[in-house]
Write a structure and sequence with these properties.
single chain; mainly alpha; two-stranded antiparallel sheet; two-stranded antiparallel ribbon; globular
Length: 500
């Protein structure tokens, strides 16, 4: 069996379902936690041309999980993949629980938080967006340093990141443009369609913030490499000053820069993890202590609410816009999960657990993007059928008892959507030369600008469809060359919308 494992490690083609060796952003499939060789180098081409060593007929046959385990490079930090998979699981189940649906009130975006304030402290556990930025910092630093060693410039690197994150987004937006247009033409109320699209597109606010952080990630890495922790401290202090201004003038829009500043500052904790600056239990527990002290002061003595997820009864939201409290929450969460890194790494040597982690990561963007479309679709179907027996009053004993069944039903619907649209999450290699710098930067601006409007206000306004913000991501991805179009020519293996 050991000889078979060694053969699989030498031959990357021996396993179909192995973790990708591509360098990926935080919420893309199978982010590598090692420095992969560039697939375009002569050495890599030579390796691909070489015939795999013959299998030993006497060696025991490995299960699929064992093959994936054997094919995983020893240098890969499997905990990065596990944290991402766990975080997406918490996000999905959390949204399906927080958003209540009743026969009398319809879809209530924050029904549980608004009706049961005892759940607010639990959001310190279930608001796990900081974990995505933690693993994103680790992965993006790894990816950019690898690109620098290969001589790859910022423009090509950014285009690759946009392809991984933006291509799976396009079918979601296209589907919701069609759904909203059909619903409005059929006479559905503008407010109903707006709320439906707004709820379904909630995941895009995170995507917009994450894309912003990716755009500045190389510059932030330079800061980190030069001044270390002071770059994190400076970002948090600046975020606090912006919060103070926004709260003093009672104007949330003044706090919008913190969608970038808070997450860009915390993203660098992932750099620290990668660089060994958080080695040792003491440093990791110090993160917990600093984060907890900051939260205690800001929430206990300051104006910030307990809930880390927007609740209707709170005068200030910690997440919309992002507040400095999220950075301190991230420090707590990062300190805790990194304190568990060693035992988690030992667990992940078990092939079955690692195989499950790989499977989740392979379609993680699709699960994230489509899970609320499943909820909105099922909710409106049940409301249209007046299926009151399937929609118990929220927060009653019956409602809580049926949450597992509700989650299983939504899981089945989301799985179908992932089967249909998950193919867009695996773009083909893109051998095109690097684009002009302005193209991927402007593309990122278009995608972020469109998503910012859609996540905040939905796809429908008082005058009908918001076609301009809905079109902006398509302009950025298609017109600005992030996606290789079929009619533009090129060599075999270049991507296109049809082939993604």
């Amino acid at each position: 069996m050991e000889r078979e494992r060694a053969r699989l490690r030498r031959d990357p083609r021996a396993v179909a379902c192995r973790p990708s060796d591509d360098e990926e952003p935080a919420i893309s499939p199978a982010t590598p936690a090692h420095d992969p060789a560039d697939a375009s180098t002569p050495a890599a081409s030579a390796r691909r041309a070489a015939e795999p060593p013959p299998a030993d007929p006497a060696a025991p046959r490995l299960t699929r999980a064992q093959k994936v385990d054997a094919a995983t490079p020893a240098s890969r930090n499997r905990v990065v993949d596990l944290l991402r998979a766990l975080a997406i699981t918490v996000v999905v189940l959390g949204h399906w629980t927080i958003m209540a649906v009743s026969s009398t009130g319809g879809i209530e975006p924050h029904g549980v938080l608004d009706g049961a304030r005892w759940t607010h402290p639990l959001t310190w556990i279930f608001q796990v967006m900081p974990i995505f930025f933690l693993v994103g910092g680790y992965s993006n630093a790894l990816s950019w340093r690898s690109a620098r060693r290969r001589g790859e410039g910022y423009a090509a690197w950014l285009r690759a990141r946009l392809r991984r994150l933006g291509i799976p987004l396009l079918p979601l937006l296209a589907v919701w443009v069609i759904v909203c247009a059909v619903a409005l033409a059929a006479g559905a109320g503008v407010d109903t369609v707006r709320l439906a699209s707004q709820m379904a597109l909630i995941p895009t606010w995170f995507l917009a913030s994450y894309l912003l952080v990716i755009v500045v990630a190389p510059a932030c890495l330079v800061l980190w490499e030069r001044i270390g922790w002071w770059s994190v401290v400076g970002g948090i202090v600046l975020a606090g000053a912006i919060d103070a201004l926004s709260i003093a003038f009672d104007n949330p829009y003044l706090g919008y820069p913190n969608y970038l500043i808070v997450w860009a500052a915390f993203h660098q904790v992932g750099y620290a993890w990668l660089d060994g600056r958080l080695a040792g239990l003491g440093r990791r527990l110090a993160l917990v202590g600093i984060g907890a002290l900051g939260l205690a002061l800001l929430v206990g003595l300051g104006p910030y609410p307990v809930s880390m997820i927007t609740a209707g009864g709170d005068a200030i939201s910690n997440s919309s816009p992002t507040r400095v409290t999220m950075a301190f929450l991230g420090l707590v969460q990062a300190g805790i999960v990194l304190s568990l890194e060693a035992p988690l790494a030992r667990l992940l040597t078990r092939p079955r657990l690692w195989f499950a982690t790989v499977l989740v990561n392979q379609r993680i963007m699709s699960w994230f993007l489509w899970h609320l479309t499943a909820l909105v679709g099922v909710a409106h179907l049940l409301l249209a059928l007046d299926a009151t027996a399937l929609l118990p009053e929220p927060l009653t004993a019956t409602w809580w008892a049926t949450r597992p069944l509700w989650a299983l039903g939504l899981l089945a619907v989301t799985a179908v959507l992932v089967l249909v649209f998950g193919r867009f999450e695996t773009p083909r290699p893109d051998p095109r030369p690097a684009p002009p710098l302005w193209m991927p930067v402007l593309a990122a601006v278009c995608v972020v600008g469109g998503l910012a409007v859609l996540a905040g206000s939905g796809m429908v306004g008082a005058n009908g469809l918001r076609l301009v913000p809905a079109a902006l991501p398509f302009v950025g991805m298609l017109a600005l060359g992030v996606v290789r179009m079929p009619w533009s020519g090129g060599t075999e293996g270049e991507d296109s919308v049809a082939s993604e």
